[in-house]
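quick q for whoever's on today - can somebody do inverse folding on this one?? i tried earlier but teh output was garbage lol. tokens:
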């Protein structure tokens, strides 16, 4: 009966029958109808009010975390990226623009103003920074514009053209990898078929100027979000499994994407189960499908993902990625609609709920799209259904005091004794020279960095900074620093400007 219902759904869609017929025929629920309208046309619901935060129980978070509605005036919000100044860029494919939310400097928990950065675009989704350029992935091309001091400078130029944007999964996502290359994910035109354009349902790789395009990996039905693990630079990507095979099959996937690999679609689903509609893979002699690294529930639609820095987080959050589950449209009961944390352990990847509550007994309040960690260490989540951006933070308690008349970093459980007897001005000067010697700015002050040092003294203490220098984790290099030099860098990074400006 389920296969018959799904077949009827396809027939109705192909014939262009009124959407109301989908509900009246019993093929889908009213909530699924809303999800289809959201996916196809960007139609959503009213943004949540500030009162509808995790603090009053509507949304659920792990202990110690709180949620704020950072923006409720961004209809059709999709992908996120922070600027070097701490402002937040938001792409809106169904609005054809990229907007900027000014950093919350007055401390009221909301952005300080909205501006348009680039408009007149064709379904822009993926955005990223590289060497002073803002890159934007549109429906049929990739473009870029110079970006400086919080605004676009000069003309927008196309660097990758001739891409196809037809079919179901027209959106494209881009990010720059640790190798300085531009990675571009583009989904399939269909639920299950053989593509005419070999670039569809793949991950591609380009030079920053758009040249040298090559297919990096294939068989990825709709990999929308991807990021590199900080401990080994492994490229992980979400992938949406095919529809119309029932409520619980196949799983949506997290794949470890490696150059030259084939990830199964359209001939294999789930853990390399042959597809019932496609028959044998005609290239089976030349390729073997790669199994997913992790399986999400069927039809949960994982989209944006990011690996997060959790050294200041309380609880079990070592080696963690956050993934936005957009939620199902073709299940008999809706599922997904949350952000989950993936915990990379020695025994595998464990999935846990991180932000939930958008599904209130079938009444859908929101659909998470992208998730990103800000320079303030908080997590930001976009919601294209409610037209909102949420900010999730964790309260950190610790010692507050004063050493030698200067503020002690409040995140240290105990202020290091050497602070009280040190010449902090001299140490800051030496620390600045070491910072310049090892060219730390190339990573920590580059455009679009996810490891910004802005506001570091509000997040970390001396002990934590010294520990990060002593036990550096990839991609951060392990520098040959003495114990004194580690302290000097910590003082330079954490002390107020009045004692460290000599090193600027």
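ok took a stab at it. sequence:
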């Amino acid at each position: 009966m389920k296969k018959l219902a799904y077949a009827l759904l396809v027939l109705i869609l192909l014939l262009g029958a009124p959407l109301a017929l989908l509900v009246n025929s019993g093929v889908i629920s009213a909530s699924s109808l809303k999800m289809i309208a959201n996916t196809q046309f960007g139609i959503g619901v009213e943004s949540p009010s500030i009162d509808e935060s995790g603090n009053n129980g509507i949304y659920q978070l792990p202990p110690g975390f709180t949620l704020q509605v950072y923006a409720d005036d961004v209809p059709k919000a999709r992908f996120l990226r922070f600027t070097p100044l701490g402002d937040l860029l938001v792409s809106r494919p169904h609005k054809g623009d990229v907007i900027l939310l000014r950093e919350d400097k007055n401390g009221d928990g909301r952005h300080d103003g909205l501006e348009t950065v680039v408009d007149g675009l064709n379904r822009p989704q993926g955005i990223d920074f590289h060497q002073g350029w803002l890159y934007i992935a549109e429906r049929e091309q990739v473009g870029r514009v110079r970006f400086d001091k919080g605004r676009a400078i000069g003309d927008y130029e196309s660097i990758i053209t001739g891409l196809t944007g037809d079919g179901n999964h027209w959106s494209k996502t881009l990010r720059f990898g640790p190798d300085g290359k531009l990675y571009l994910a583009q989904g399939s035109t269909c639920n299950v078929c053989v593509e005419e354009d070999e670039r569809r349902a793949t991950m591609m790789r380009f030079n920053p100027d758009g040249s040298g395009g090559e297919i990096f990996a294939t068989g990825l039905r709709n990999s929308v979000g991807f990021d590199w693990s900080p401990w080994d630079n492994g490229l992980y990507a979400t992938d949406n499994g095919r529809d119309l095979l029932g409520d619980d099959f196949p799983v949506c996937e997290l794949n470890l994407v490696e150059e030259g690999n084939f990830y199964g679609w359209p001939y294999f689903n789930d853990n390399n189960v042959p597809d019932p509609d496609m028959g044998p893979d005609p290239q089976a002699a030349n390729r073997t499908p790669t199994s997913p690294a992790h399986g999400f529930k069927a039809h949960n639609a994982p989209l944006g993902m990011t690996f997060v820095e959790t050294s200041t987080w309380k609880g079990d959050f070592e080696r963690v990625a956050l993934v936005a589950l957009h939620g199902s449209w073709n299940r008999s009961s809706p599922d997904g609609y949350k952000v989950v944390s993936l915990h990379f352990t020695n025994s595998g990847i464990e999935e846990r709920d991180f932000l939930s509550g958008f599904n209130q007994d079938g009444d859908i309040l929101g659909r998470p799209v992208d998730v990103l960690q800000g320079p303030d260490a908080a997590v930001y989540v976009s919601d294209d259904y409610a037209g909102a951006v949420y900010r999730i933070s964790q309260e950190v308690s610790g010692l507050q005091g004063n050493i030698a008349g200067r503020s002690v970093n409040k995140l240290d459980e105990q202020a290091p004794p050497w602070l009280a007897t040190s010449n902090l001005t001299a140490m800051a000067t030496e620390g600045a020279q070491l910072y310049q010697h090892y060219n730390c700015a190339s990573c920590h002050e580059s455009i679009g960095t996810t490891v910004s040092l802005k506001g570091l003294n509000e997040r970390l203490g001396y002990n934590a900074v010294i520990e990060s220098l002593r036990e550096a984790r990839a991609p951060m290099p392990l520098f040959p620093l003495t114990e004194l030099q580690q302290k000097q860098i910590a003082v330079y990074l954490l002390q107020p400007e009045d004692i460290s400006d000599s090193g600027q």
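fwiw The helical segments are 2-15, 20-24, 30-41, 424-437, 441-444, 462-470, 483-494, 497-500. also The two ends are 70 Å apart (CA to CA). so keep that in mind when u check it
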